[in-house]
Specification:
Layout lengths: L2 E6 L4 H9 L4 E7 L5 H8 L3 E4 L8 H13 L5 E4 L8 H6 L4 E5 L11 H8 L3 E8 L9 E8 L6 H24 L3 E3 L5 E3 L16
Parallel strand pairs: 1-2, 1-4, 2-3, 4-5
Antiparallel strand pairs: 5-6, 6-7, 8-9
Helix pairs in contact: 1-6
The site of 5-O-phosphono-beta-D-ribofuranosylamine has 13 residues, from helix 1, strand 5 and helix 6.
């Protein structure tokens, strides 16, 4: 069975979704750059190994990433899943895990990379928003896309209500993407495309607001 290491910085709800979904892989460890990340307690309660690599303990990004990679590699994972990991990773780190490092982002990439995605989507008046699981490349939030979920933006949405609607979908698509990876159903090709072993069909179109 393949194994993964999950990197978190905070709440850890995506991490929990991965633990609960048991996506045909072993969760070898959860690593956080913050000792106070709430997700660490969830992992510990389930008997998962946890490690803290505090970014403030290192002089620069390179030395932090080297230490982080050392901790990850000690578990010999097949894949590394970023789940709300709030550090920008160096090109060297990303290259080391090419095709093995995935991230969940709360927008329909390539729209709204970076932070405050829900507020920006509301500000722009988009009618459809969502989330994306992608392979990580040096280009921040622009790696090859594995799966996306779209949700409607409703007239009275606030950042919070929209975030909650998107988060529900994050918790569905991340376990799916990890399951595909661990079952060998998808991989990253030489030319940065996600190749699927069998053809996956989208279930249906979303129109927002709905047609009458
Ligand atoms: C999620 O919205 C994720 O998409 C983003 O950071 C948030 C982390 O939430 N990268 P959680 O820690 O998984 O609850």
């Amino acid at each position: 069975m393949k194994s993964i290491v999950i990197l978190i910085s905070g709440r850890g709800s995506n991490m929990r979704a991965l633990l609960e979904a048991q996506p045909h892989c072993r969760i070898a460890a959860v690593i956080s750059n913050r000792a106070d990340a709430e997700g660490l307690n969830i992992a510990k309660a389930r008997g998962i190994a946890t490690v803290v690599v505090g970014h403030r303990d290192y002089a620069d990004r390179d030395s932090f990433d080297t230490a982080l990679a050392g901790e990850i590699d000690a578990f010999h994972p097949d894949f590394v899943a970023l789940a709300g990991f709030m550090r920008i990773l160096t090109a060297g780190f990303v290259a080391r895990y090419r095709g093995k490092l995935v991230n969940i982002h709360p927008s329909l990439l390539p729209a709204y990379g970076g932070l405050n995605t829900h507020a920006r989507a509301l500000h722009d008046g988009v009618k459809i928003h969502g989330c994306t699981v992608h392979f990580v490349t040096p280009d921040l939030d622009h790696g090859p896309i594995i799966i996306q979920a779209a949700v409607p933006v409703l007239p009275h949405d606030t950042g919070q209500t929209l975030a909650a609607r998107v988060l529900r979908e994050e918790h569905r698509i991340y376990p799916q993407a990890i399951r595909w990876l661990c079952e060998g159903q998808i991989e990253l090709s030489e030319n940065d495309r996600v190749t699927f072993r069998s053809r996956k069909q989208a279930s249906h179109a979303m129109v927002s607001p709905g047609l009458e």
